Amino acid sequence: MASSFGQLFRITTWGESHGGGVGVIVDGCPPRLKLSEADIQPDLDRRRPGQSKIVTPRKESDTVQIMSGISMTGKTLGTPICLWVKNEDARSEAYSEMKDKFRPSHADYTYFAKYGIRAWQGGGRASARETVGRVAAGAIAKKILREKFGVEILAYVKQVQKIIGEVNPDAVKLSEIEANIVRCPDAAAAGRMIRLIEKIRNEGNTVGGIVEGVARGVPAGWGEPVFDKLEADLAKAMLSLPACKGFESGSGFGGILLTGREHNDAFRAKSGKVFTTTNRSGGIQGGISNGETIFFRTAFKPVATVMHEQATVTEQFKNTTLKGRGRHDPCVLPRAVPMVEAMTALVLVDHALRQKAQCG
Amino acid sequence: MASSFGQLFRITTWGESHGGGVGVIVDGCPPRLKLSEADIQPDLDRRRPGQSKIVTPRKESDTVQIMSGISMTGKTLGTPICLWVKNEDARSEAYSEMKDKFRPSHADYTYFAKYGIRAWQGGGRASARETVGRVAAGAIAKKILREKFGVEILAYVKQVQKIIGEVNPDAVKLSEIEANIVRCPDAAAAGRMIRLIEKIRNEGNTVGGIVEGVARGVPAGWGEPVFDKLEADLAKAMLSLPACKGFESGSGFGGILLTGREHNDAFRAKSGKVFTTTNRSGGIQGGISNGETIFFRTAFKPVATVMHEQATVTEQFKNTTLKGRGRHDPCVLPRAVPMVEAMTALVLVDHALRQKAQCG
Amino acid sequence: MASSFGQLFRITTWGESHGGGVGVIVDGCPPRLKLSEADIQPDLDRRRPGQSKIVTPRKESDTVQIMSGISMTGKTLGTPICLWVKNEDARSEAYSEMKDKFRPSHADYTYFAKYGIRAWQGGGRASARETVGRVAAGAIAKKILREKFGVEILAYVKQVQKIIGEVNPDAVKLSEIEANIVRCPDAAAAGRMIRLIEKIRNEGNTVGGIVEGVARGVPAGWGEPVFDKLEADLAKAMLSLPACKGFESGSGFGGILLTGREHNDAFRAKSGKVFTTTNRSGGIQGGISNGETIFFRTAFKPVATVMHEQATVTEQFKNTTLKGRGRHDPCVLPRAVPMVEAMTALVLVDHALRQKAQCG
Amino acid sequence: MASSFGQLFRITTWGESHGGGVGVIVDGCPPRLKLSEADIQPDLDRRRPGQSKIVTPRKESDTVQIMSGISMTGKTLGTPICLWVKNEDARSEAYSEMKDKFRPSHADYTYFAKYGIRAWQGGGRASARETVGRVAAGAIAKKILREKFGVEILAYVKQVQKIIGEVNPDAVKLSEIEANIVRCPDAAAAGRMIRLIEKIRNEGNTVGGIVEGVARGVPAGWGEPVFDKLEADLAKAMLSLPACKGFESGSGFGGILLTGREHNDAFRAKSGKVFTTTNRSGGIQGGISNGETIFFRTAFKPVATVMHEQATVTEQFKNTTLKGRGRHDPCVLPRAVPMVEAMTALVLVDHALRQKAQCG
Hints:
Four copies of one chain form a homotetramer.
Chain A: E1 4-5, E2 10-14, E3 22-27, H1 37-47, E4 64-66, E5 81-85, H2 108-115, H3 131-149, E6 152-160, E7 163-164, H4 174-177, H5 187-202, E8 209-216, H6 230-239, E9 244-249, H7 260-263, E10 267-270, E11 273-276, E12 284-285, E13 288-289, E14 294-300, E15 309-313, E16 319-323, H8 333-359
């Protein structure tokens, strides 16, 4: 149950950071969609370790294999699509100290408290490696949204610690995002972000920041009125990502400084179409899309693994210390960008199908 | 589907702001729990319109009736509990202008875009009146958490526009929250907040702010590792509340200004118990509770209905203007407090039962 | 959870045989469907006690009220529809002996074993009174199927004990079913059935039989390939009805006497349409409709309440005897007919929407 | 969605008869259960083609690999368990004629009608090969039921065409079932069944029959009162198996020949325990287990693939004929036995966890 997401376009992920691999089942995909590994691999490459000097040097090719659900002619059959990525560069020895000690601000202790057992190598299921399945499934969702609904999904790094990029959600392009290794489309800010991350890594420390997500072209009417509001499902999707600690949609936390008169988005009509003159609602009103650009921000905390001695406890509940070792990200943000895109796409494609079912 | 929440302790709400009433079905409640209307009414009274000078003067007694699921001896039977609250003070005439015009930053337009039809009186299902069912069901959830698991749930107003209250999540008491009509336990800040809200209301304007939610006594091990992380389910729960635009857990958006070394919560052990010396994780690590106080913040935008002329469009997509009328809240925060508590309790009781099922 | 049925067109029933009433929430109903109590009441009248001399004389008008989900213009809003039927003729005193004794072959003991508590008056939630909500919701489902998809749902009594009616599932009409009080369209058999039921009732005994369900006009392509096969969902729907002990689709149990060569349905094509020359598949192949008439049979055991002393035990697990009292059905079949229709319609409308979502 | 089964112990199967393999994700498994391939392989061997002279000679070793969810010490982690079986002996050429023609009484036409595309080799997802995942997951469910709840699950062939075995559900042993290749514990009947199947196979024909399922040691109180009755979930589970056309629980269809007085199971108490003197209820009353042996019968139609020319249509809807080729089962029953056991175990373990969650 806990490993499935979505009502109609439903994914189920499996796999630990060490072991046979990681994967995902995509159930409910519309039939007759052209689909091959080439549609999926690019997003996995954007998520992959070792892709640049500011992410973990761990070497995983993360090559996806489609195991089921595709016809001999390369089209979706409508039946479950199984995607599998083999684990390659898993060095359990780097984690041997973790066998007996809980890493601070990681999930080691809570998994142990929950299950009475844990996969201590690489964090097991709590590892960001689990997101391979999400990104792979998200690539399919993005393709459907693009081809069948004209919806474009993007995400980018908006802020690293105190460095903020200036980006226009209505106009930003994928090529601008991919123009630098930190995935911030504001080139000047990106340069400063990269230098900060390198400095922080050299100090054996880590840093967090904000990823902004954008969906353009979503027609008015997607989303559900009460519990499954579009914002609610996006919030859940984002907070389900490792290290994510916050979500805000449209004006978000900043919007509370305005009064209602200042905050409201005026409706206007032109050529039989309705639009708003501002977009503090972030494209969603009452949980349902209004046709404007959907945008939101997600906060990712600094990575918990630092190369310094830290106070912690053993599995026997004795006080001890632990120093991070192995190959880790000094900052998750560049690799979080495709994850945010994937989760956004999974939420939207599900609501697209739900809208078709009830009101189509 | 869209009107149900929870996997094992599942609620389904129904009803519009105008019509026969609003209600909720609670399915999956443990049997043999003493339960009467007296357990539920107090939270409805905290949510009720007309309770103070800073909320809408609309008059609804919001008297709850238990329609099913209780034995003659006043105990839960384990079968669905139906709770019903009659609508009393619905004045459709106050909304007649809304029949043809969409209120800015409300859900009028998006409902129409979605369904091709809408209940224009009082916003129908998008009205905050829908939360009656949540608060009623949440009162049952709170009772179970308190009596069976020793968990205490609280929420309070943390911020109104720029006025911030100083509150300690580990120590705050219900009596301090209920000590003033704005429900901010910092008495000095509360006074300023109340004055601000009165001033804003006199200007025909509205204002937003932050509600902080707290859960104390949650044992380590609740929550699920991947999609149904405790933070993810709380985020969804909060963003599903009307006017909520943001959620952050523990250090939240502020945490990104710290480095990993500064941000991590050190584990310590004492008398065979594990605790953390700081709580930037907000009581949740890897989506699972760690035994510390759970706390989070939710942003509520300023109420969209203002008593001023605003640009908007008609149902025929013609430009027009609309001026708010009727009886509205200048600030939702005091009434949002029991809603945040209710949604917190619904998330936690569901995860408590899920933990019992799989690992108990 | 246990009280909800359906994925997209989802109903949730509530209420006990004694208490405030019984009801149902219908969530996911398409918007803009003309709907009033007059669409629902006729099926409730067919289910109602006291409708004829061969059913229980208990007096319930079973008048349905729509509590939510309908616009002022009498159309569905797309939001949850709450239907409520008040309990009227509940005489708890007739059940006083049941307070301490478990009725044989009823659910008294199993509810007590499960919950440690039970609503002993009238069987509480295990009473067939719960099906009021199903029949009411089913009337909406039937209307959608009829108006939007051209699908007709019928059920009728096929067999009472050893008396078997001859009925053609492809041709039978509602008027033939409603032509007599036992709801068997074979008039000659119906006469014998009625006489048998009267005789059995006079003996203080009860009798069971078979209801056959039919769906005509279902297009090829509804149903899911693996777990949610149309037959599987119909089987679950039927076995969830009180007193139902068996389900068979198409050739069913009788089909095992044939060889594969004899059993197979040959495909033929005519004017660009595919059909089968026989219909042993009962309109479903591989769990998916093939365009032929769907038909199936459901076995209802003899009613457990008989007016004779029977061996049983007390709530304190002492041996005792119990003699049925009160007003009971000598045979559930005439009243089971609208229940079978309702459950059939609920399964089909759900799959219609699912098909629209994924493949439409 | 359609490929998942269960609420708390949830399985998701994937894979076609031709392609990379077939598999299953088991989510919600309790942690710390000793588990290896050796716990699963024996049931797969019972389901495997080529196991005897009366089943298809297709050669598949069906060797299961555990891909995730197990600790280095061989225990379940509580996270999803992925089980994978490679396809080995897939000869697409044997199916080339099926590329353009629909096999009668198979799912070829309905899949095409549903999805507009189909995996014509081996029936794709409609192939009984999909049940590999169910049997593998069911082996885990059986182990949990046996070790944690003392529940024993068995199934056996009760009838092949007109040959009926005499078996006592309360006493039958696994060794008696496995004593012959047709899996009928009545040795004399088994001999006649085997001879019939061989004769039928030599005629290029096929035959069906009945598998009876048994669960012993289920405590009173499992199952849900309304839609998720134990019988309802078992019925769905069975009808979701390929070729299954009927389900009956306890007295089933035969029970309708009795009156209520004859049919009722009298309760008796002895040493503080309640039991029934007969078991026409089949261990389930009101959808909830009563502590007696659960038993039910499932009808499997004769296999649709026969080695004779049959009338059918092409994918272009032209009349044609088709003669079965390739390697097929003359009778599915011996291989259906482990499938029935698996589905029974999956239903029961799910209800065991649900009972623990709500009432435990």
